[in-house]
């Protein structure tokens, strides 16, 4: 990069944000065509601060508990500073349900598509789901490679066992 080239962050800000992937790239200061990062501590912290600065709190949502079937109305009070994220569940926010304050995964919330925060939350959920799926695929590939290297215990030649 020469002294006259604009910094990458400036390029990322100037890039159009028409698609979900482009909006997510903007969170990380990436440009079009850049690969979206996988979920790790640094990326979760980046997304946490991005959303904390941009979401308008409080806002209404529906909590979709993976164990219980009915969705429940909640009020999202803010991002959870004590536990910003959990590896398998993503970003954590504080919700008020009745008089009970609880910390839940942002990924377990649904917003109406006419809410101002809808796009920000949906973009995060989409990125996190894809990042988790990609990480699981990488783990499965690594496990398969390890398994192939170790063998499956059936290392008997096709023509039968050989005597010493």
What gap, in angstroms, lies between the N and C termini? 65 Å
Number of strands: 6
- SS-derived structural category: alpha+beta
The helix-strand sequence is HHHEEEEEEH
Radius of gyration: 22 Å
Approximate helicity band: 25-40%
Average residue pLDDT? 83
> Beta fraction of the residues?
15-25%
Identify the overall geometry: globular
Q: Spans of 5+ residues with little confidence (pLDDT < 50)?
A: 4-13
Major sheet characteristics: 6 strands, antiparallel
Q: How many helix segments? A: 4
Task: Tell me what you see in this structure.
The chain is globular and about 45 Å long. Helices cover 38% and strands 19% of the residues. By secondary structure, it is α+β, with helices and mostly antiparallel strands. It contains four helices and six strands, in the order αααββββββα. Strands 1, 2, 3, 4, 5 and 6 form a six-stranded antiparallel β-sheet that branches. The chain has a domain at 37-139. The chain has helices spanning 8-14, 20-27, 41-54, 118-150, and strands at 59-63, 72-79, 85-86, 90-97, 100-105, 109-110.
Short descriptors:
164 residues; alpha+beta; six-stranded antiparallel beta sheet; 4 helices
Offer a concise description of the structure.
With 164 residues, the protein is of the alpha+beta class.
């Amino acid at each position: 990069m020469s002294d006259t080239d604009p910094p990458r962050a400036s390029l990322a800000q100037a890039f159009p944000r028409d698609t979900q992937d482009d909006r997510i790239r903007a969170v990380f200061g990436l440009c079009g065509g850049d690969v979206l990062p996988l979920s790790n501590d640094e990326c979760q912290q980046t997304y946490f601060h991005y959303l904390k600065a941009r979401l308008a709190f409080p806002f209404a949502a529906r909590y979709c508990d993976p164990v219980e079937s009915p969705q429940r109305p909640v009020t999202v009070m803010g991002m959870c500073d004590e536990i910003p994220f959990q590896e398998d569940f993503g970003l954590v926010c504080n919700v008020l349900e009745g008089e009970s304050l609880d910390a839940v995964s942002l990924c377990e919330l649904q917003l109406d598509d006419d809410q101002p925060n809808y796009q920000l939350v949906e973009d995060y959920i989409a990125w996190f789901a894809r990042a988790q799926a990609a990480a699981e695929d990488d783990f499965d590939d690594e496990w398969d490679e390890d398994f192939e290297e170790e063998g499956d215990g059936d290392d008997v030649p096709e023509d039968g066992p050989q005597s010493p």
